[in-house]
Amino acid sequence: MRGKRIRTTGKNLFAAAALFLPLAALLSGCGKRAALDLQTEAPDGLISVAFSEVGAESDWRVANSESMRTTFTEENGYEFYFEDAKGKQENQITTLRNYILQGVDYIVLAPVVETGWDEVLQEAKDAGIPVIVVDRMVDVENEDLYAAWVGSDFKKEGEVAVEWLEKYLEEQGRADEEIRILHVMGTLGASSQLGRTEGLEEGVAAHDNWEIAAQLQGDYTQAKTYEVVAEYLAESEDIDVIYCENDNSTLGAIQALDEAGISYGTDGDVILISFDATTVGLAACLEGSINLDVECNPLHGPRVEQIILQIEAGETPQKLTYVDETYFTPDTLTEELIAARGY
Ligand code: GZL
To answer: Whole-angstrom Cα distance, residue 186 to residue 25?
Structure first.
């Protein structure tokens, strides 16, 4: 493995200069970002891996960041850079340009939304820096703009939830009952939101007696979901299911249901469906507050490392790697199982 040097070939130098000038204006103008250290070089023998993370909006996201941090350590042979974009694509694009100017060996991108990446990924390609995309997908004209992707089949996650709901309603003798579903979406345009939403919408279309009562924007956070669900419940309490696209949103819905005095879970009036299967979600599922929690595995660090080691060895990694996932219901959980999962 090699230490990283700033590349100064003609093409890259031009690309860097073309990028640097506006960046210098930005840096000198706002002074909000630490001056870019263009002399950054990874100590000899380390591979420099630079990660642009969405933010820290959820327990899932925190676990995802931790997986990357604990994988790309100096003792494992890496120089690790990390930037939290606070949920803004423009911050990620600025971060990627900084990484390109620093001449890192690899860029890892967890894209906040699918579109708007072609230009900056072309800049990384022109600089000869492989980009590995994790979690959500990028929608680009040319798939050669990234070396590989690791993540989940989000539509499949939604389909798992629909299949479970259909079976659960049958077991409850409610197969032919009118079912009204309150749908709380994640960050609009994120692959996880698009896929989980598509899975639900297709499931509703396949059941004449199911209806989406409303689609609210929970943005994957407890606070936002509490706000929008409380506002909805103030107008109507006629719902049978709340389908939240991550655990933190489900906790926000629970807060609003508690305030409205509406029961939920295995012994309540409203069925709660959640995604991520993080510790907070599984704890609520174990106690029967959440009926179903569909797993979405955040531990991408080791998978990304395998891809990097393949590229270091001159191999071409598999383009798309889907992680294996399952789902949990109260009867399948124990405190020991939850503790052993580590996130
Ligand atoms: C899913 C990921 C989503 C999680 C949320 O892979 O993109 O973003 O479901 C997180 O918890 O905020």
So the answer is: 35
- State the pTM of this model: 0.87
Mutate to test the pocket of ligand 1, among 54, 138, 294, 296 (most ligand atoms within 8 A of CB): 296
Q: How far is the CA of 122 from the centre of ligand 1 (A)?
A: 26
pLDDT in tens, 61-98: 999 999 999 999 999 999 999 999 999 999 999 999 99
58 Cβ closer than 6 Å to some ligand 1 atom? yes
How much of the chain, in percent, has pLDDT values that exceed 70? 87
Q: pLDDT tier at 40 (50, 70, 90 boundaries)?
A: low
Instruction: Give yes or no for a contact between 222 and 56, defined as CB atoms under 8 angstroms apart.
Output: no
Query: What pLDDT does residue 44 have?
Result: 72
The CB of 149 under 6 Å from ligand 1? The reply is no
Per-residue pLDDT tens for 262-282?
A: 999 999 999 999 999 999 999
pLDDT of residue 237: 85
Q: Is the CB of 246 under 6 A from ligand 1?
A: yes
Q: Whose CA is nearest to atom 1 of ligand 1?
A: 192
The response to whether residue 224 sits with its C-beta less than 6 Å from ligand 1 reads no
CA 290, CA 292: separation in Å to the nearest integer? Answer: 6
| Residue 176 CA to ligand 1 centre (angstroms) | 33
Ligand 1 proximity of 220 Cβ (cutoff 6 Å): yes
Residue with tokens 């609210």: 216
Spatial separation of the C-alpha atoms in residues 340 and 337, rounded to whole Å: 5
- Lookup result for tokens 């891996």: 49
